[in-house]
Structures are given as C-alpha cells and as structure tokens.
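FORM 7B: Structural annotation worksheet

SECTION A. Query
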Amino acid sequence: MAEPITAGATVVVAADHFRSYAVVGVLAAVGVLFVAVAFGAGRLLRPVVPTPEKLMTYECGVDPVGEGWAHTQVRYYVYAFLYVVFAVDSIFLFPWATVFAAPGYGATTLVEMFVFLGFLTVGLLYAYKKGVMSWT
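SECTION B. Predicted structure
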C-alpha cells in the first residue's frame, strides 16, 4: 500500500518544480547574453565607411524607379491572424487533453479550456465580422 504524501514531501516537490524553472531562466539569460555579445562584437569589429552608394536603396541590384510606397491588402494580415488562432488552438488542445485525463485535474483544466475556447471564439467572431470567412 502506498504511503500518503505529507506536507514535507509537498515542499520538496514544489522546490523541484521551481528548480526546473530556474534552469529554464538561466538558459534564457545565457541565450540573451550570447545574442547581445554577438551583436556587440559585430558592431565593434565591422568597418564603418558610409558612401552615397551604400546609403542608397536598391531593388535587386538596380537603381530604384518610382516611389518607395506600395499598398498592402489588409486581408493578408487577417489570414495570418486566422492561422495563428488555429495554430495556437491545436498547440494547446493536445496538452490539455493529456492533463485532463490525469486524476485531480479535471474540473480545473475544464474551466481553463473553456476560457481558452472563449478567446478563440472571440477571434473567430472578429474574423467573421471582417468577412474573412466568406469565399470570394
């Protein structure tokens, strides 16, 4: 028969839990430091010789013709927004399903998933209101 978990064991489990987050935090800090050092070294070591040719914009190696202003359709951003909504939805549903099956997590994860699905519904309603759901 299994021994019941005591308060002291709960403290040890919590300490192990936060220790794993500390490892993630240290790795994130090392990553940020690595990028900062790389950019700083690049800034210090590169030659800085600005010439008019270097400061001029170009299009595929050819001098630019006309204005540099172009209109972009907003619907492409809305398509990207819809992709993100569905991608995030699929990313969160699988871990939720695995945790939901664990004993003691049913009600909490069910409420959390309905909150998440509420946000997803708001995103889909926004897309529907913008007319993205109609095939034209």
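SECTION C. Observations
The helical segments are 7-45, 52-55, 75-100, 106-129. The mean pLDDT is 78.

SECTION D. Sign-off
Analyst initials: ____
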